[in-house]
Each structure stands twice: as structure tokens, then as C-alpha cells.
Design brief:
The complex is a heterodimer of chains A (365) and B (219). In chain A, 43% of the residues lie in helices and 10% in strands. Chain A is of the alpha/beta class and 365 residues long. The longest helix of chain A has 32 residues. The model of chain A has no long low-confidence stretch (mean pLDDT 84). Chain B has a single domain, classed as Fumarate Reductase Cytochrome B subunit (Up-down Bundle). In chain B, helix 1 runs parallel beside helix 8 and helix 2 crosses helix 9. The longest helix of chain B has 34 residues. Classes of the chains: A alpha/beta (365), B mainly alpha (219). Chains A and B meet through helix 13 and helix 16 of A and helix 1, helix 4 and helix 8 of B.
């Protein structure tokens, strides 16, 4: 494990104490912790040894890594990310081929039971050949690397819930990490991609408190995924008033009205976008005029289309209603025929009384 | 099954099935009623059957004095319930979008807090009617399992919809899924229970009006 502490490393990078404490306060408030814990977070992060992190990328698009590394100016999150000992990440590391794999094996051996395993991308179960690294199938590599991990962070919706590869019809038989590894603590940091500060926040939490943050029922850190986009959306008052943009360039869109009719999935999406925002707090998708696509939720690709309102059914309802009408007509016609036959039978069976019969009945009684 | 998978099922397969059963059921019931048939009335017409039929569809919305005197409570409760239900179903914007995606028709909706108020009125109306049903001995005696069943399947979509809008008790996706599922239950049962009065009332009123109109008497 590297010798220098995180505090030393950050100071070497020219980070002032003031901005470090500011970052600690941001983390504390982001994770809904008491402000009294800020010095403790700072102390723990200062003193912590740079932890070994192994980052495995499976069926993914590298968007998660991009999200974390592609900032125009070095951010505090970026520095914290630099501060971990990223021992294996096949996109970012300089080594390749056997040397790269050797680095992973060495990190695993040296820090067995202590390293943090970060996974982005889903794992194909159909055919191992669909996705391999150095000739090793994703499934084998995940199982092998997970053995010595202290915790697994599934970064991005693909690793957390299957994401795009798992979208209908799921040609590769893609599954999330949690379908394969069941004996290790897993934190799902979902999003396509996830918000950078959420990724670093989770890593910082593990470093500070030595355990996992509080998770929701989908295994996501509750502090960041506790509220829906809709509940924190600044356009919510327009939803309440019934003022909706009908197209992306009408008056409503220009006035910043609610994007529900244009397919916003904010009401059922849990993420911190509306509060943390993106690009160093600049804005988030709804603020730039596009509805939420629900990227931090399982199966969001199959949610019936990004531009279809949430209340619209996803099946071919109209067509099936026609089939329903056809079936109803067929059964109805059968019932009709039966009723008619019964009536005709009744008419045929009807016997008319004659005067003689009536007179006879009168005499008998 | 996660709440998302549940929501996806009720929005997809579940809703498709429910709509197909609903459509088939309505057509079947209409065919059944129509096939009962009536013998041609050979008497000379004393008035126009059709105009009287159509007029009766509307004027039966207003109760006559005798009924009003006997059951003012139930008339008021039922009126609030039916008007409220109509507003909630047809003037909530997400519902309009749903209807549009099935039949391709759209109209303006009402602001959500207004619809919300109507939802509360509707539920109060339903609860009042249930209270009446279980406290009036004669009505209680006449009530069957079906009466309580149709009450429940009408109340559930309102309750789950109210909870979903206010995001109470469960996660929003779970609430939305429960709401849609309760509506599917309603759609499936509607043609085959007393709830079919939601469309047969038109036929019944028209027919009552038409026979009176044909005879030239007030319906």
C-alpha cells in the first residue's frame, strides 16, 4: 500500500486547507451528515493511506470514467480521485497487455481483503466471448477480483442494474454485478453516467467511516438517491399549475414550463441531479430544457421511450384493444345465435289453447 | 421483482391485457343486450321514440321529487362521487395523455390541485355511500358480495392515485404501479359486474324514454 497519506498527497497537488475543508463540508451536507462531523471527515481523509482501487470495465461505454475525469479544470473530486491508488483501470493506466494484468494481480495479492473494487459495465452471461479482457471473460475476472475486495462499488447503471446492454432484448444476457456477487457489500452508484461527486462521496465515506453509507432498497447511497428528481425540481410549480411545454420550441418550453408531456421521467427517478447539478454546479438536464430520462433507475431504456409521457402505456394498447373488440364481437355473435335459437325454440314449442280445451277444463273443475 | 419491473409490467403487458379484456367485455355485453331483442310494436306511434329516448338520457340526471324526498342523502353523495370521478378520470393531464395514446384524442386538463380536491370529494362520496350501505338495515340486507367488490375496485384507484400524487407511504414508482394495477382490476371487472352501468345506463335510459315517447306519454 502506498506510503503517503491522502492529506500529504493533496497538499503536494497544491490544495489549500481551506478548499479541502470546503470539500469536506460539501460531502457532509451531500450525505446529510451533521456539520459537527466535518472535522472528523477532514481528519480521517487527511490521515488515511491511499487505498488501493481496482477498476474493472466490462460492457460499458467509458462514460462513467469520462464523467469522473473529464472536467475542464481540476476539481476537488478529481484530486481525491487522483489520491486513491488506482492500481488497475484499463482505460486510464499506461501499462497494457501482460503488464496491465500483472498490475491487477499484484494489487490483489498485496491488498487482499482491503482493496476497493470499482466496476462499471454489465457482465454478459450468454457467451463469455462477448466481452473479454486479456482473454479472460468478464464473469471470471469479476469473480476472481471480487474475492479479495473489501467492498464493491458498482459505478453506473450498467454495473448497478444492467443498463443499456440489458435493455430489451438483452442480446448478450447482460446482468448487473449484484446478480453474480452475493457475499460482498455492494454499493450501487447508478446513473448514465453517475454524478462525479456521488462517486467520490461514496469513496470518501468508505475512507472516513470504514463502512458503507446507508443504502436504499436498490443498494444506492440513500443520501444521494433519497429524493426524486420531481420532488426537487424547480419546474415542479408548473406541474402543479398544469402548465406544460407541448413541444421543445413552443411558448411553454421558452417559459420553462414542466416537461412531463415531453416524456420527463423525474417523478419516478431518484438521483441528486436537481440539487448537486452537473458541470461544477452549472445545471442539470431539466434546467437545459430536456426531460429527465430516468438514467439512475433499473431498466430505464425500456421505459416506453424517452419522449413518451410517463402515464402512456408501453404496450401496443390500441392494436390489442382492436383484438379485444374482435374477440368480444365473436363471442357476442355466438351468444346472439344462442339467444335466437332459444327464442325460436320457445316459439315452436308454444301451444295455443282451443275453446274446446278451455270448456273441458271448466267442466272438469 | 423490483418496483421498476412491477411498474414496467403494469404499464406494458398488464395494461394491454386489461384493455383487451375491457374492450372484449363491453362489446360482448352490448351484443348480449341487443340480442335480447324486442318484438316490433304494431301500435300506431303517438310520438317520436328517438327524441324522447335521447331526452330521457339527460333528464334522468335530475332526480324527481319523490326520490329526492326519500333518499336525499344518497343522491347528494352519489352526485358528488360521480361528478368527482368524471373530473378525476378525464381532466387529470397524465390521464388525458394516456387516453390520447389509445384513441388519439386530446383536450385541455385542469390544474393538479383542483383534480386533487375532486379526488378527495370523490372518496368522501364513496365512503358516505358505503356508510349508508352498512348502516341502513334494508340496504344492508339487499347488499351482496358484488356490491362491496365493486365499491372496493372503484375506491382503490382513487386511493392509490391520491397516494401516488402526494407520494405517501411507498416509493413513487411503487405507488404508480399500484395505481395502474388497481385501474387494470377495475377495467377487467367493469364489463362483467354492476359497474357496466357506466355504459348500459345510456341504453336503459334511452329505452325507457323511447317506449314512453312511442306511446306519447311523459317518460
Amino acid at each position: 500500500m502506498p506510503k503517503n497519506t491522502l492529506g500529504e498527497h493533496l497538499r503536494q497537488q497544491g490544495m489549500s486547507r481551506r478548499s479541502f475543508l470546503k470539500f469536506c463540508s460539501l460531502l457532509a451536507s451531500g450525505m446529510a451528515l451533521s456539520p459537527a462531523l466535518v472535522p472528523r471527515i477532514a481528519q480521517a481523509l487527511e490521515a488515511t493511506r491511499r487505498p488501493s482501487v481496482i477498476w474493472l470495465s466490462f460492457q460499458e461505454c467509458t462514460g462513467c470514467t469520462e464523467s469522473l475525469t473529464r472536467s475542464h479544470t481540476p476539481t476537488v473530486e478529481g484530486l481525491i480521485f487522483d489520491a486513491i491508488s488506482l492500481d488497475y483501470h484499463h482505460t486510464l493506466q499506461a501499462a497494457s497487455g501482460h503488464a496491465a494484468e500483472a498490475a491487477r494481480e499484484e494489487a490483489m495479492k498485496e491488498n487482499f481483503g482491503q482493496y476497493i473494487l470499482v466496476v462499471d459495465g454489465s457482465i454478459p452471461l450468454d457467451n463469455p466471448g462477448f466481452s473479454t479482457i486479456a482473454g479472460i471473460s468478464n464473469l471470471d475476472m469479476l469473480k476472481e477480483t471480487a474475492k479479495g475486495a473489501a467492498a464493491i462499488v458498482a459505478v453506473g447503471t450498467c454495473a448497478a442494474f444492467g443498463g443499456l446492454p440489458k435493455a430489451n432484448p438483452n442480446p448478450t444476457g447482460a446482468v448487473p454485478v449484484s446478480d453474480i456477487i452475493t457475499d460482498k457489500p455492494i454499493i450501487n452508484v447508478s446513473g448514465c453516467p453517475p454524478i462525479p461527486v456521488v462517486i467520490t462521496g461514496v469513496l470518501a465515506h468508505i475512507l472516513t467511516f470504514g463502512g458503507l453509507p446507508e443504502l436504499d432498497d436498490l443498494g444506492r447511497p440513500a443520501a444521494f438517491y433519497g429524493q426524486s428528481i420531481h420532488d426537487r425540481c424547480y419546474r415542479r410549480p408548473f406541474y402543479e399549475k398544469g402548465l406544460f411545454a407541448e413541444t421543445f420550441d413552443d411558448e411553454g418550453a421558452k417559459k420553462g414550463w414542466c416537461l412531463y408531456k415531453l416524456g420527463c421521467k423525474g417523478p419516478v427517478t431518484f438521483n441528486a441531479c436537481a440539487t448537486t447539478k452537473w458541470n461544477e454546479g452549472t445545471s442539470f438536464p431539466i434546467e437545459s430544457g430536456h426531460g429527465c430520462i430516468g438514467c439512475s433507475e433499473p431498466d430505464f431504456w425500456d421505459f416506453g421511450g424517452f419522449y413518451e409521457a410517463l402515464s402512456r402505456p408501453t404496450g401496443q394498447t390500441g392494436k390489442n384493444a382492436v383484438y379485444g373488440v374482435a374477440a368480444g364481437t365473436a363471442v357476442g355473435a355466438a351468444v346472439w345465435a344462442m339467444n335466437r335459437a332459444k327464442k325460436e325454440e320457445a316459439v315452436r314449442g308454444h301451444e295455443k289453447l282451443t275453446m274446446d280445451e278451455l270448456n273441458r277444463e271448466g267442466e272438469e273443475s | 421483482m423490483t418496483s421498476t419491473e412491477f411498474l414496467l409490467w403494469v404499464k406494458g403487458t398488464g395494461f394491454t391485457l386489461a384493455i383487451a379484456v375491457f374492450a372484449a367485455g363491453i362489446v360482448l355485453r352490448l351484443a348480449e343486450i341487443w340480442s335480447l331483442g324486442r318484438k316490433p310494436d304494431l301500435a300506431e306511434a303517438k310520438g317520436n321514440a328517438n327524441t324522447a329516448g335521447v331526452r330521457t338520457i339527460f333528464n334522468r340526471f335530475i332526480p324527481d321529487k319523490g326520490i329526492w324526498d326519500r333518499s336525499a342523502f344518497i343522491i347528494i353523495a352519489a352526485w358528488f362521487f360521480h361528478v368527482g370521478l368524471f373530473v378525476v378520470i378525464f381532466f387529470f393531464v397524465p390521464h388525458i395523455l394516456l387516453i390520447d395514446s389509445i384513441i388519439g384524442l386530446q383536450w385541455p386538463g385542469l390544474p393538479t390541485p383542483i383534480v386533487d380536491a375532486f379526488a378527495v370529494i370523490t372518496m368522501v362520496g364513496l365512503l358516505a355511500m358505503l356508510f349508508h350501505r352498512i348502516t341502513q338495515p334494508v340496504k344492508k340486507y339487499l347488499s351482496t358480495f358484488e356490491d362491496y367488490l365493486v365499491w372496493a375496485v372503484t375506491f382503490l384507484p382513487l386511493l392509490t392515485g391520491y397516494l401516488a400524487y402526494h407520494r405517501l407511504l411507498f416509493s413513487p414508482d411503487m405507488l404508480l404501479a399500484m395505481h395502474i394495477l388497481s385501474v387494470e382490476l377495475l377495467l377487467v371487472l367493469l364489463p362483467f359486474t354492476k359497474l357496466s352501468h357506466s355504459f348500459t345506463f345510456l341504453l336503459a335510459r334511452w329505452y325507457n324514454g323511447a317506449i314512453s315517447g312511442f306511446r306519447g306519454v311523459q317518460s
